[in-house]
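[step 3/7] fold_predict: job queued, chain A
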Amino acid sequence: MKSKACRDAIVLTDGERAALEDLALQHLGHSAGARRACIILLSADGRSVTDICNMLGCTRQTVVSWRRRFQRARVEGLHRARSARRLGSCGSVPIQP
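[step 4/7] structure written:
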């Protein structure tokens, strides 16, 4: 049976790697976009979630979330704004303005 790291490995195309490297360098590591790119590049290089957290100073949830988002939407998913949250309700009870 394959290890979890092997099963969850991120494999990049040459074009994806180039786009991620450009994004990481473009912002010199000081933006959310650069951090996201670094998370994916380090993941593709076989680094563990724990290693990435320690290297970038971010939480496990951040690494896991961006890895998952990349796996669903690839490089484009790293650029998109967060999906809109439901506003104006609390469960099934409407909130009055």
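[step 5/7] annotate
Residues 17 and 28 are 16 Å apart (CA to CA).
The beta strands are 89-90, 93-94.
exit 0
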